[in-house]
Amino acid sequence: MPSSSDSTAGPQLCYHCGEQVPVGADLGVVIAGEIRPMCCPGCRAVAQLISANGLENFYQQRTAYNLRPQEREVAALEQYLVYDDPALAASFTDIDSAGNMTARLLLGGISCAACTWLIEQTMARLPGVSRALVNLQQSRLDIQFDPARIPLSQVFARLDALGYQVRPFQASAQRRQMGEEYRLELRRLAVAGLGMMQVGMFAVALHAGDIQGIENQYQGLLRWVSLLVASFVVLFSARPFFTTAWRHLRQGALVMDLPVALAIGLAWLASAWATASGGGQVYFDSVVMFTFFLLLGRFLERRVRQRHALTWFDAQSALPDAVSARRGGQWATVPRVQLQSGDIVLVRAGETVPVDGRVCDGCSAVREDTFNGEPLPRRVRPDDTVYAGTVNVEAALELEVLGSYLDSRLAALQRSVEQAQTAKPRLARLADRIASWFVGAILLVTTATALVWSHLAPDQALWISLSVLVISCPCALALATPAALTSAASALRSTGVIVRGENALESLARTTHLIFDKTGTLTEGSLAITDVRLLAELPRERVLALAAAMQQYSGHPVARAFSAIDAAASLDQVQYTVGAGLEARAGDHTYRLGSESFCRGQALALPPPPAEPLYWVALVRDELPLAWIGLADRTRDEAAAVVGAATAAGLQVELLTGDGSGQGPLLARRLGIETVSSGLEPQQKMAHVRALQATGAVVAMVGDGLNDAPVLGLADASFAVANATDLARTQADFVLLDGDLNSVIRTWRKARQCRRVILQNFAWALAYNACGIPLAALGFIPPWAAAIGMSLSSLLVVVNSLRLNGGPNTA
Amino acid sequence: MDSLYLLIPIALLFCAIGIKLLLWAIDNGQYDDLDKEAWKILADDEPALPSTEQDGSPPDQQRREQP
């Protein structure tokens, strides 16, 4: 439980989201009688709401930290008012005969089962809401309410206030298919399980009969009913093994499913033949048990990966739903989807740009971290183009819409993500590589057995060669991988790493190159004051306090770096000049804070900024230069240690960044990274990784932003750090929940350990076969021994895999 | 021992009914969310509430709390 260890050593962590509380922030909330620290007003608001509703229990019950609520300047409710429009709501709501509305909503930020409880309890207590049901697996809320008593927009706003992102749930084909596949798998598992119990009971009677004698008529009866049940299980439950094996065989690939399908199919055929002819031996219990074990192993492996279904928010969902557009000389709020080329829209400071557009009025700066990952904004003036998904930081802009979402640069980014997925190289799985020669060996041994016995005792040749096939049943072999992967994934989950990618652990264990993104990954992704050069007699504290007081009036990202500083006494007449800086009066003095040219306009004596590649702002009082304040994106504390550990472990560490300034190489030199590529667009990053892969390298990528999403999708194994955008999370194989870069190395070690366990499992399974097959070939193994041997060897594999569940440092 | 000819088919019938019921429950969506249901029985349905009016309490308070 994350909540129990907060107050121990180290920096204070936010009680709600688990991030570090900034120095000087005083945002405590009393929860269950104790003051808990909060990192930001967003977390505080959510925690207060939870506490005010008497739902503090949530914090005791949850198993993971919540996501930090998104910061936004616009009132939440206003954003959601568009959903009160029946036409827009129709696609995800139904209205029943009594006038109640049922809405299907997609929730972002659900981290554990306790969240579902919190949401259900909170929503069900709103007046007018009759039913609220959360599906954790799909991150979906079905809520029934009376729209006359509570409008849909209120439902949205309430969920938003709880700190969850909320969107209409659109049943995409992929999502529906996943749901159906899950149910089908469960059905197969249910049939195999119940069938296994039935056949098992009959098998006990048959095995007892083998040992102490049984009348032929009863043996026949038991065999026939076993055949009936087993056939049902083989035809229904074991079908995917046959189809997968066949599909790959037609493409000339041998996969693990082939020996599985062979074992199931042949053992079933042999037993059916024995039942019909009244001779030989039956292996129905082995067939059914094998099917059940394997289905269970694969089901659990998939479940542990898909359990924490991180919602599939696409790039488009970052855009606002409601937009201010000019309609007949007035500003009206319209749904974004109704915008057309040529419309004029208004984007206020702090809002996300909803469409690609040309600036027709206003000067401002837009933060384009979506495309380049950088926190510093780009200045725009009339006739410049701004892109959907970027954030307008300084002043209101009027834009002429250039095209629909599908034509936007953001949509192109999303498309390149989809391309990256198909371009991702598929590393052959260990199991499949073993399967190919395993099949060959088994067929060879069986043929040899048949040949030898047809000379020695022709009447027994068929049964003995069949028993070789059954004893070689690759149950332990086929379970070796899923059991180890499940165990490793749940161990990682408890240390704050979610494993999502299929085979990701196997790929990670083979990684040769570890590539980091810069901003937001190796660094914190926001500016902090790193250097102050005093130019006058004023002490440093005074300078910073003055600057902080002025920055309170600015929405520029630079201003956030000053928010932790105690601001100086009140200022008058603060004026903000877009793209230049701030001017304020205090007493008889006029202060200016901002760019070099802006400040020199008032104080001619201002020296040029220091040479270090920082983001410099000047502070002047009347004609007197006071200071240069240098800001930079702070490097994460653990970054150097992580890079060092990776290099020591023999990995090639590289830095890929969208930042074209000198910061990339500078940071790399400080951290000891030798290979750096800076100023890269998302597509160039992809090309770089693809080139590496072409030389045979196995690439692991660590990133956070939307701009990293395509390259995360392409890399053999990928990590999304905490607070990564949704699109980056959905592309990553591993999601680091606690934002600790050390998890990258920890996960890598776990993956190596997992690979060792898989190899041990294979070794054991093959050793079992190597001992069993000769005995079977000599005719020594009766069906009951085959069943016991199979179960025991599988059990051993599972127990060995469970070792991975031990402490995170056992590697 | 001839009773086996009756008892085994009856057992199979029960098994078939069991499978049928389980498949119905799966299709009905009762197993769609294994985590939540497992967790739910441990949670209080009705957490300690100061008073019931509070949930309907002033919407302006809610709005103030929004981030």
What does this structure look like?
The complex is a heterodimer of chains A (811) and B (67). Chain A has 811 residues and is α+β, with helices and mostly antiparallel strands. Among the domains of chain A are: 2-57, no CATH class; 76-171, Alpha-Beta Plaits; 176-308 and 426-484 and 753-805, no CATH class; 315-421, Calcium-transporting ATPase, cytoplasmic transduction domain A (Distorted Sandwich), CATH 2.70.150. Chain A has 28 helices and 29 strands. The radius of gyration of chain A is 32 Å and the shape is elongated. Chain A starts with 28 loop residues before the first strand and ends in a 9-residue tail after the last helix. Chain B has helices at 4-27, 34-40, 59-65. Chain B has a domain at 1-31. Helices cover 57% and strands 0% of the residues of chain B. Residues 48-67 of chain B have low confidence and may be disordered. The chains are: A alpha+beta (811), B mainly alpha (67). Chains A and B meet through α1, α5, α6, α7 and α8 of A and α1, α2 and α3 of B.
